[in-house]
Amino acid sequence: MTPVIDVHAHFHTPSSNRIDWERYNASRLNAGERIGVVCHVASVLGSWGATSPTYFSSPADQTRANDWMLDFAEQQSPRVKAWVAVNPNYTAHALAEIARGVARGAIGIKLAAGRRVDDALLDDIAAAAAQYGVPILQHIWQHRRRDWPNQDASDGVELARLAARHPRTTFLLAHIGGGGDWAHTNPAVREFENIVMDLSGSGIDRGMIDEALRWVGARRLLWAADLTLCTGLTKLRALPFTGASDDDLADMCWRNAVRIFPVGTFAAALSGAASGSGATA
Ligand SMILES: [Zn+2]
């Protein structure tokens, strides 16, 4: 089985409003193991709405969430790694969280939909990513035609504007299967080599991955699952039917992740996969 790195995962915490949070987390890890996931790169968005809105988490909620996530990654090492999630509306707090998170082992920065991504408020955060050598996972609504309640969503065109201002920062465009029209995203980001895309989201349209491959190529696509593994599994099973070569499949399943995150991030997870425990190369 090809090892798989899930670059867009989430977990729940005792501060979120799910009484079954531990069972949810355990089932994610168990199901991940069954389908070959050797590492989940995960974040927690504040209290998931319990005490501040998911996409506009309060500084206190976000600090608590990051603390929990960093502890969990430590406990579950090497099969879980952390994104440090921040709300760009509190820029000073966000920058302090990034410094603190990276020092504690976070390997990237997660931005949800708290602020439109081409806003100048994002510049300091994009610069910090380049400074620390970590990518940014940016929540994207594919072809945003209007505003949506409870989020300041952005689409590929808007992410491209930020990426153009920060050519040294790698941006992982979240969930091509999320939100509206995925076909709009490919031409919007094609010429921006520092934008790569994750395959997660509930959309599993026929042709979605094929078109992304045609426009940006396998070196810029990363398999991921986001909130649940079920649609991720569908796309994992669909990958070989796109006609992608074994090399392209390895790129999308794990090698691009090795390239965009700090050197050595997945060494232990991948060597565990190579030496047995179900997943063999
Ligand atoms: Zn997400």
Report on the structure:
The protein is an alpha/beta fold. It has a single domain (4-274), classed as Metal-dependent hydrolases (TIM Barrel, Alpha-Beta Barrel), CATH 3.20.20.140. The chain contains ten helices and eight strands. The protein has helices at residues 21-35, 59-76, 91-103, 123-132, 156-165, 185-189, 208-216, 229-238, 246-260, 267-274, and strands at residues 4-10, 37-43, 80-86, 108-111, 136-138, 171-173, 195-198, 221-222. It has an eight-stranded parallel beta sheet. Helix 5 (156-165) links the parallel strand 5 (136-138) and strand 6 (171-173). The longest helix has 18 residues, at 59-76. The chain is globular. The termini are close together. The model has no long low-confidence stretch (mean pLDDT 95). It binds zinc ion (ZN). Zinc ion binds at residues 8, 10, 139, 174, 226.
- Structural class of the helices, strands and pairings? alpha/beta
| CATH fold title | TIM Barrel
Could you name the CATH homologous superfamily? Answer: Metal-dependent hydrolases
Give the assembly state of these chains.
single chain
* Residue windows where pLDDT falls under 50 for at least 5 positions: none
| CA-based gyration radius | 17 Å
Distance between the termini: 6 Å
Question: What is the strand arrangement across the widest sheet?
Answer: 1-2-3-4-5-6-7-8
CATH class: Alpha Beta
The overall strand count is 8
Shape: globular
Number of helices: 10
The proportion of residues forming helix, as a percent range, comes to 40-55%
H/E series: EHEHEHEHEHEHEHEHHH
